Amino acid sequence: MKNTFKCIAFDFDGTIADSKDIFLNIFNLLAQKHEFKPLTQQNLMQIRKLSVKERLTYLDIPMYKLPLLSAKFLQLYNESAGEIKIIAGMRDVLYDLHRNGYQLAIISSNSRKNVEQFLQNNRIDCISYLHCSSSIFGKDKVIRKFLKTYKFSSEQVIYVGDERRDIEASNKNNIQIIWVNWGYDDKNSISDYPPDFIASKPPEISEIIHSAY
Q1: How many structural domains does the chain have?
Q2: Residue range 22-45, pLDDT digits in tens
Q3: pLDDT tens for each residue of 129-188
Q4: 15, 20, 119, 167: which could form a disulfide with 124 (CB 3.0–4.6 Å)?
Q5: Rounded CA separation 131/146 (Å)
Q6: What's the rounded Cα separation, in Å, for the pair 154 and 144?
Q7: pTM for this model (two decimals)
Q8: Taking Cα atoms as reference points, which of 174, 187, 177 lies closest to residue 208?
Q9: What is the pLDDT at residue 94?
Q10: Is residue 97 domain-shared with residue 187, that is, in the same domain?
Q11: Do 40 and 14 belong together in one domain?
């Protein structure tokens, strides 16, 4: 039985875009200014195993400061957006899926401007839908709005993401998910939220989709 997917929806940061170094630099600028715990490569690996709320506690970031910090982070990110590189192999994956008739989407908490600039810089013109929201929590609502806006059923979309919240949001919308292990979250962080599929390198995304069912 052939799969019923019409659209492959991708997370952006950590899944398509290799933005970890920029993330660390900006985060530590804000940490120094607002006196919360800085991130190193070592404790970044540690917090990859935690939920968003657990990360805030670990880093001594009060919840009430999150909207202000998020806005400032996005401003600084905007200034560095031109430096973001694509995950090696992801461009080939996108075009392989496009050639095979799938519609491609990006659902991201990053700004539309940043994602569009990234796509232009990397000469990617095969994305049919770009759905951006600044919400850090409630990604399930963002996906639900995407499905409603573009009139997709849950069976017609599979999501590709790198975080535990991507899995939780997909589950709440009854859509399948491919979790990639090169992004922001560690495999231990999803032990209680097993995804439908796991990709260890970009070509496996295509393999999973082409072989589904």
Answers
A1: 2
A2: 888 898 999 898 888 888 877 877
A3: 999 986 655 789 999 999 999 999 999 999 999 988 899 999 999 999 999 999 877 787
A4: 119
A5: 7
A6: 9
A7: 0.85
A8: 177
A9: 98
A10: yes
A11: no
